[in-house]
């Protein structure tokens, strides 16, 4: 999925075996020094996206679809699908105004279709990652056209004004919240914890 090492075989060779990866091997850009408001928000978003990939790395379809505790439908696969939907709604529909685009995971039924449809099927896993990557890529392409001057631009969401800044902060918040869930879900699957 991401080319990372096998956690079972590389833990013994890490300098910090209690961490996900040694700091010098961390693929996230969290130690970058972004310049400006847009780049700062975008840097956090990219870091959290990479963390999502790390938390899911090395798991099969059954493990990714494994639910937390009944009656919750929360799973790592559900989080991938949910975050793809979040990127789609906020970047494509709200910020870019593409309301004609079909909503993601709604056709499967119910408000929690992104989680309910996260089943242990390799095709579902492949589709979820492809959709997430497509939506994150589309968001990045749009962000590349923006500047700090655009952060205060106003758009409407359900008839209420919101700024680009507020949307980016919400996306960072959304990822941060769900990566806390991902930490617990991954630990329940194979005991792996870490940054």
From TrEMBL:
Q: Which InterPro entries match?
A: DinB/YfiT-like, MST-like
Which Pfam families does the protein's record reference?
MST
This chain's source organism reads Isoptericola hypogeus
- Its protein name is DinB family protein
Region: Disordered; residue ranges are 1-31
Q: Classify the source by domain of life.
A: Bacteria
């Amino acid at each position: 999925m991401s080319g990372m090492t096998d956690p079972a075989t590389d833990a013994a060779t890490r300098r910090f075996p209690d961490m996900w990866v040694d700091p010098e091997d961390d693929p996230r850009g969290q130690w970058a020094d972004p310049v400006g408001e847009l780049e700062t928000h975008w840097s956090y978003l990219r870091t959290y996206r990479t963390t999502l990939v790390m938390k899911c790395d090395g798991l099969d379809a059954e493990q990714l679809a494994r639910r937390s505790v009944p009656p919750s439908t929360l799973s790592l696969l559900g989080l991938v699908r949910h975050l793809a939907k979040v990127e789609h709604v906020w970047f494509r529909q709200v910020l870019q105004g593409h309301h004609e685009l079909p909503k993601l995971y709604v056709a499967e039924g119910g408000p929690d279709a992104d989680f309910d449809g996260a089943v242990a099927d390799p095709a579902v896993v492949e589709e979820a990652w492809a959709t997430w990557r497509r939506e994150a890529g589309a968001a990045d392409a749009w962000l590349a056209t923006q500047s700090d001057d655009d952060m205060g631009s106003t758009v409407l969401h359900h008839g209420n004004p919101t700024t680009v800044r507020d949307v980016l902060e919400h996306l960072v918040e959304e990822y941060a919240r769900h990566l806390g869930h991902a930490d617990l879900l991954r630990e329940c699957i194979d005991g792996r914890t870490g940054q």
